[in-house]
Design brief:
By secondary structure, the chain is an alpha+beta fold. Helix content is 55%, strand content 13%. The protein has a 3-stranded antiparallel β-sheet. Strand 2 and strand 3 form a beta hairpin. The chain starts with a helix and ends in a 6-residue tail after the last helix. The model has no long low-confidence stretch (mean pLDDT 85).
Length: 113
């Protein structure tokens, strides 16, 4: 089952506990975001006007090798946080708003909890 399918049917945490399958799927996303480089990549893409970033701009923002950046981008794509599109010799990355919205909904708990 795809992550979005799992999250779509997941109620907010305050209403009922997640089952093991849902918890594992959501944990993969949070694990990906738990890495500082990946969190910065998501922030770079999210804050860019137009909502997309060329891989060259992402690579330039770090003092890491291109293969290391590629690995982090692959992880973010695998968990459904980023999508990409190749244009000529460059790849452009965008956030997947549905995934962020589902995470937000899942964590949306009333202040009285």
């Amino acid at each position: 089952m795809e992550l979005l399918d799992l999250l779509e049917c997941s109620p907010p945490l305050a209403r009922e506990p997640l089952d093991a399958e849902r918890a594992a799927a959501v944990a993969r996303v949070f694990k990906a975001l738990g890495d500082p480089v990946r969190l910065r990549i998501v922030s770079i893409v999210a804050s860019r006007e137009g909502g997309e970033v060329c891989v060259c701009d992402i690579t330039d923002a770090f003092e890491l090798s291109q293969p290391t950046i590629s690995h982090h981008l692959k992880v973010l794509k695998e968990v459904g946080l980023l999508t990409s599109e190749r244009r000529a010799s460059w790849v452009y990355y965008r956030l997947v708003p549905e995934t962020l919205a589902e995470l937000s909904t899942l964590l949306g708990a009333p202040a009285t909890v």
